[in-house]
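Example record used in the benchmark description.
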Amino acid sequence: MASRTRTRTYDAAKIRVAVTAQFGHITEAVRELTPQQLGLPSGLGEWSVGELAGHIAWIADSLAAGLARPPGAVAELTAVEWPFATASLAGKISEAARETLTGAPVPELFERAGARLAEALEANPGSRVMDLWIGDMTLADFLVTRTVELVVHTDDLNRAAGLDIPVERQALAACTRLLADALALKAPGGSVEVRIPPFAVVQCVQGPRHTRGTPPNVVETDPLTWLRLATGRTGWAEALAEARVSASGERADLSGLLPLMG
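Model output (structure tokens):
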């Protein structure tokens, strides 16, 4: 899918710090999970909380494994295109996570994956092209996508297991902006303004373009609700009914565009 939106830039050093810190927050939390909590439903298909936690450990482990492989030649995929490339690989990713991370307690999986990740990032201080299943990406862009995975799954764990894992502001900002830009890529246009303060404002949906004053079609929500909408954790009608999103104007119904990724 060719991008029709302005390419957003991210501070690569801050993204690295945010990814590492968010994984660290999750690592600290899973150390304290009881067997009862690990057995709870995660809310994601048939996964238990323990299986969700194992998948999060795999996210870090697979990033380290990707950096250990020879680099790709040319980046084929940008960060904003990534959400649309992942759906077809859900089963493969789930299977790979099971094969890689079985046979050890969850805290041990996290310690091992965290150590591998830290070592791999230290060995790759700059950017490079990574050879990935979804298509080759620069390390810098792929790290931005990791903020989506880690922040969204932090929220999943918090809701499923009654936790209060903190979210790094830089990670929340990056994943909010990436998914907002993905909406603008999916539905290019200028008739609807989507506001997710304090991190993102994008225009999307074909129709009369707004130029000055108050836009006729406005959607506004908070970052966490936006992530839940974009990833299918929350439905559009539910968010409207609970006043977690406001939508004004005849074109401001985004239900047909969401979720962006499941």
